[in-house]
Structure formats: structure tokens, C-alpha cells
Amino acid sequence: MIEIDFEKGSGLVPVVVQDAETGEVLMLAYMNRDAWLKTRETGKATYWSRSRNELWVKGETSGHIQHVEEVFVDCDSDTVLLKVRQAGGAACHTGYRSCFFRRVVDGKTEVIGERIFKPEDVYK
User: Fold this and answer.
1) Burial class (CB within 10 angstroms; exposed 0-12, middle 13-18, buried 19+) of 27
2) How many Å is the Cα radius of gyration of the chain?
């Protein structure tokens, strides 16, 4: 197995997450060594929550689990790309398919994504 360089980022590496079928960027997250090993072991995307300071399996609460189809590592071994099958249709905790549902045009932000669910209905 390839060795990820967790030292450059003080124990964390960024993870770009794409829809395996469409290539749409769904989110950016972080992994530590434990999250990396758990993801490889289970096939479910597991990340390190910087705000909660703990491991979290994406979708563990909402049911919107990310099933890993392919794993890529960049040339410096310090960034991971996951291609996933997104259960439930939404990767973003705010209910959108992608966390990148806003676009900046002429200094103004516009919502370009469709909300799949209401967070208050999922996270109780």
C-alpha cells in the first residue's frame, strides 16, 4: 500500500471527493492516518473532523454514506482524491448534493445547486 505523507500537514491531508460517475466535486475534507486506514478497511469514506477533533464516517448520522469506488494519491503523497458513490443524493450537511453549491459572479454569490433535503429533518 502507498504511504501517505501525513507529516507535511501536521498529521492531516486534504481529501478531494468526487462523484465516481459524473466527476462532480462533492466536498473537501481531511484525513489523518486512522481515517485513511479505516477508509481503506471498510470502503466507506472516513474523515477527521477538525471542529469535533474526532473521526467521522461520512453519512453515519444522515445515512448519506460515501462508498469509495477509487482512491488516488497525488505526486507528493500528501493529497487524496476519492471517487465515491454518494448514498442519499447529498454530500453536503446543508442538504445540497455538493458542498460547492454557490458560485461567485461579479462579486455576488448565487446558489446554483438544488437542495436535496432539509438539515433540520435529518440532523435532530
Assistant:
1) buried
2) 15
pLDDT value at 1 more than 90:
no
44: Cβ–Cβ under 8 A, 6 or more apart, which residues? 57, 58, 59, 65, 66, 67, 68
Mean pLDDT, the chain, rounded, equals: 95
Q: Whole-prediction pTM value?
A: 0.92
Tell me how far apart the alpha carbons of residues 117 and 95 are, in angstroms, rounded to a whole number: 5
Distance linking the first and last C-alpha atoms of the chain: 39
Nearest 5°: phi and psi at 34? -65, -40
Task: Enter the DSSP assignment of 124.
Answer: -
- Residue-wise pLDDT for 49-97, tens only, equals 999 999 999 999 899 999 999 999 999 999 999 999 999 999 999 999 9
Q: What is the set of domains in the chain, with CATH numbers? A: 13-119 (3.10.20.810)
Give the sign of the dihedral formed by CA 46, CA 36, CA 30, CA 102: negative
